[in-house]
Amino acid sequence: MDFFKGLMTDLASSRCEKLQAPSYLNLTLSILILLGILVSYLPQHYRIIARGTSEGISPYFILLGTTSGTCAFANILVLPASRADVACCKTVSTFECVAGLLGIAQVGVQWFCFSVILLLFLVFFPRGPTLPIDETEQQQYTWKTAVTVAFVCLLHGLAVIITSAALIMSRPHHLGTWANILGITATVLAAIQYLPQIWMTWHLGHVGSLSIPMMLIQTPGSFVWSGSLAARLGIEGWSTWGVFLVTGCLQGCLLAMGIYFEVRARKAKQCTEGETHARCVVGYMQGENGQAETDDEGGTLVEDGWNERTPLLNGSRKSSQTPTPQR
Q1: What total number of domains does the chain contain?
Q2: Transmembrane residues, as ranges (predicted)?
Q3: What end-to-end distance do the CA atoms of the chain give, in Å?
C-alpha cells in the first residue's frame, strides 16, 4: 500500500508542476472546445422541441450514446492523472486549477448535453408511428421502448457511480484498471452507437428529428477534441481521447448520409411543372432502394412537391389547375 501511495505522491507532484506552467494555446483551445460542445448540441435540442417529436432518432442510438457518455465521464474522473489534477487544486492558484480541469469539464458537459437529448427523446417520443422495413413487416418502437431505454441508462449510471465510489474508498490502487475498463467500454459503445442510427436513417430516407447542423459542428470538433485531450493526458490517456476519435469517424458517415438525403429532397422540391417536371419526378421519386422519395419531414413527395401530410383542402391549390401528364 505504501508503494502505491508513493506512486500517487510522485504523480501528484509532477502534475502540479505541469499545472503551474499551463500552455495558453492549449488553454484557449480547451475553452473553445468547451463552448463548442455546448453550442453544437443546441440545434439538436431545438429541432426535437420545434418538431414536437423525436421521430427519426433510434432508441438504440440514444441508449448506446448515453451509456458511452457515462463511461467516458466516469473514466476521466477516476483516471489517476485527473485525480492528481484535482488534488493539485489545493496548492495551485484558482486560474491554474480551472485550466487544469477543463478536460474533465469538457467530458462532463458532453455527457450532460447528451443526457438532455435522452430526456427530450422520452418526452417527445411519438406514440403511434412505426419504422417500415418492407411491405409486410414492421419494427415497432413503442412508448415502452423509450421508457426501457431511459430505465437502463439510469441503472447503468448508478452501477458505474457505486462501483467507482467503492473502489475509491477501498481499492484505490485498482482505479487505473477500472479507468481503462470504462474507457474501453465507452469506446466499444461509441463504435456501435451510430450503427443503429445509420441503419434507421438509411431506411427512413430522411434525417427526421436528427440535426444536421449539430453533426456539422461535432464531426470536425471530435477530431480537434481528441487531439486536445491527447495533448493534455498523453498516450496513457488513450482510453479517454480514443472515444472521440472513433465517434468522429462514425458521425461523419451519418452526416454524409444525412446531407445526401437533404440534397436529394431539395432537388425533388425544385421540379417545375410540365414535361420537365414529369421527368424530374421520375428521377427523384425513386430512391436507391426503389422506395418513394421523402421530404425532410418524412412525407412522401408527389408530383407538385406536396406530400401526404399536406391538407386536402388548400386554398392555394385547385384541382382544375393540375396539369394532365402528356404521354
Answers
A1: 2
A2: 23-41, 61-81, 101-125, 146-169, 175-195, 207-226, 238-261
A3: 88
Instruction: Please state, in angstroms and as integers, the Cα–Cα distance from residue 315 to each residue in 83, 300, 303, 304, 319, following that order.
Output: 66, 21, 18, 15, 11
Helix (H, G, I), strand (E, B) or coil at 184: helix
| Residues 44, 156 share a domain | yes
Confirm if 225 and 247 have CB atoms less than 8 A apart: no
**Residue 156: C-alpha distances to residues 78, 104, 169, 182, 253 (Å):** 17, 20, 20, 12, 28
Measure the CA–CA gap between 176 and 189, rounded to whole angstroms. 20
Record the pTM.
0.71
CA angle 76, 13, 18 (to 5 degrees): 70
**What is the rounded average pLDDT for all residues in the chain?**
77
Distance of alpha carbon 48 from alpha carbon 238, whole angstroms: 34
Q: Are residues 247 and 313 in the same domain?
A: no
Among residues 266, 294, 311, the one where a domain terminates is 266
279 and 152 part of one domain: no
- Assign 3-state DSSP to the chain and report helix, strand, coil percentages, each to 5: 70, 5, 25
Spacing of C-alpha 52 from chain mean position: 19
> What cell numbers appear for 164 in the block?
467507482
Residue 150 reports pLDDT greater than 70? yes
Domain that holds residue 211: 2-266
Angle at the Cα of 45 from the Cα atoms of 225 and 293, rounded to 5 degrees:
100
pLDDT at 13: 64
- Ranked by mean pLDDT, which of 121-130, 184-193, 219-228, 284-293 comes out on top? 184-193
- Cα 41 to chain centroid distance, Å, stands at 8
